[in-house]
Design goal:
Blueprint lengths: L11 H14 L4 E3 L6 H6 L6 H6 L3 H9 L20 H10 L8 H14 L10 H12 L6 H7 L2 E5 L2 E2 L5 H8 L6 E2 L2 E2 L11 H12 L6 H17 L4 E4 L11 H13 L6 H20 L2 E4 L3 E2 L4 H7 L7 E2 L5 H11 L7 E3 L6 H10 L5 E3 L9 H15 L16 H22 L5 H19 L3
Parallel strand pairs: 1-2, 2-4, 3-5, 6-7, 7-10, 10-11
Antiparallel strand pairs: 8-9
Helix pairs in contact: 1-18, 1-19, 6-18, 10-11, 12-13, 13-15, 16-17, 17-18, 18-19
Length: 465
């Protein structure tokens, strides 16, 4: 299924250059600084139970496509909020095989074919006629030591893998990994959305969890900020190098101390006025930027997703079930309060992501091309595709160059997709560089250097790894 020249330029001269570039980086280690895999996998190091639990149920790229064509999430064994899950995994796999044609032309198809062939030796396209053969072979492999989570981590040549964890998380699985003697680096990332967004489910209960975890009284503005600083320090002690913020907008604010205290009192007491939740999130982004200046944690902002857009799916299955939809996002005016205060700080790194591609050349690249603190995150989520990656390079490089970007991250919940996604990113970057060389816009020796930088050096530097 896998052509060795996939995603390379069709023009022969550029293809030859691309092939050489790719060969120079294809076996470099994987650095995954932003993702959503489970640290528990690596702490317990237990076999994955079955092919459906490995490929389908953790991967919203897969089940959202099936759902869009009328396949109920219950039929795919997606866990409900009431803990109900009764689908037979083999039947889930058969449904997947019957509908595999839906992924034609998508990046998901590239990732799946890569995993099937490179990990399981399956070179015939998945279909209803071979679904059981696929299932049985994959299941047999999953029952071997070579397919335990830690063995796969090492097989994939993962140098660092970052997870995403709530601000009040005990990090017990990370601690178990660290105390086990295993050499794999699995690092936490501080994600405070559940204690910042007043509309987040269970927000007030989450504030109490934060206070308990930090040993602070969060009923006051000062106590709340002390609790967040405490938890950031705890995450950093356990290996974290970054924070992650998934707000609806990139809006920031710089309120006076009395105004911030009064705003928090209304938020905490449940007496928020219209607009308070939004301005509170905006203020907290600026507060977190200041904390990053203090403690050195890299700050990531990825706005623009309208979360849980489908209320019926959210009510039955909860968050992160493929029903998040991109929205237009403004950055220049939104980030001005934060950047006016901290954008020139040398001890501050702010990595910006977007789901609104129209902002690459108009807003994001100019911001990164000026402020020493600002870097551009790679194409993300709906744009994690060959076309999305190429558009990013074409629109961002002319203003921000390569060195105001941070390499690639896979942002995945599905372990087996990690090497597949990095393979696609490396191929597309090499294709872009090969075109520049073929057009005499970049010398070949420079292209080899940039290819390596885009693969490992920029991400190590940006995330302090």
């Amino acid at each position: 299924m896998l052509d060795p020249n996939r995603l390379f330029p069709a023009e022969s001269a550029a293809r030859r250059i691309c092939t050489k570039l790719f060969e120079s980086i294809r076996d470099l280690p994987i650095i995954s600084p932003h993702g959503h895999t489970e640290p528990r996998w690596f702490a317990e190091n237990k076999p994955f139970p079955n092919p459906a639990a490995l490929f389908i149920q953790p991967d919203h790229y897969i089940f959202r496509m099936l759902y869009s064509q009328g396949v109920p999430l219950e039929a795919l064994g997606i866990p409900r909020v009431d803990d109900g899950q009764g689908a037979d995994p083999r039947e889930v796999w058969r449904i997947f095989a019957r509908n595999y044609y839906l992924f034609r032309g998508t990046p998901t198809r590239l990732w799946l074919d890569y995993s099937f062939e490179t990990l399981f030796g399956l070179t015939e396209r998945l279909s209803p006629s071979n679904a059981d053969e696929y299932y049985d072979l994959i299941q047999k492999k999953l029952d071997t030591p070579e397919f335990l989570p830690r063995a796969l981590f090492e097989r994939f040549k993962i140098e660092v893998l970052a997870t995403t964890d709530p601000a009040y998380d005990s990090l017990e699985w990370h601690k178990q990994i660290q105390s086990s003697g295993w050499k794999g680096r699995v690092l936490p990332t501080f994600r405070p959305d559940a204690v910042i967004d007043a509309d987040f489910h269970g927000f007030h209960e989450n504030l109490q969890k934060l206070g308990q975890a930090a040993g602070e009284d969060v009923s006051s503005w000062n106590g709340y900020l002390k609790a967040l600083r405490n938890r950031r320090a705890y995450f950093k002690q356990n290996g974290a190098t970054a924070t992650d913020h998934g707000h609806l907008t990139a809006q920031t604010a710089d309120l006076s101390l009395p105004d911030a205290e009064q705003l928090y009192e209304r938020i905490y007491s449940g007496n928020a006025q219209p607009g308070d939740a939004e301005i509170f999130q905006a203020q907290m982004l600026t507060e977190f930027a200041g904390m990053s200046v203090e403690d050195g944690l890299v700050m990531q902002i990825h706005p623009g997703s309208v979360r849980n857009y489908n209320p019926k799916v959210y009510e039955k299955f909860g968050r992160d079930k493929g029903a998040d939809i991109p929205s237009a996002t403004e950055y220049v005016r939104a980030l001005r309060p934060l950047l006016s205060k901290y954008g020139n700080e040398r001890n501050f790194t702010l990595i910006l992501f977007t789901l609104d591609e129209t902002t690459y050349s108009r807003e994001l690249a100019p911001l990164a091309g000026h402020f020493p603190s600002v870097k551009l995150g790679p194409p993300w989520w709906f744009h994690d595709s060959p076309e999305g990656m190429m558009r990013f390079r074409e629109m961002a490089t002319e203003t921000a160059g390569f060195y105001n970007t941070v390499g690639f991250n896979d942002d995945t919940r599905a372990l087996l997709s990690i090497p597949a996604r990095h393979d696609v990113a490396r191929r597309v970057d090499c294709a872009f560089l090969a075109r520049l060389v073929a057009e005499h816009r970049l010398d070949e020796d420079e292209a080899f250097e940039v290819a390596r930088d885009l693969t490992v050096n920029l991400v190590r530097k940006a995330y302090k790894l």
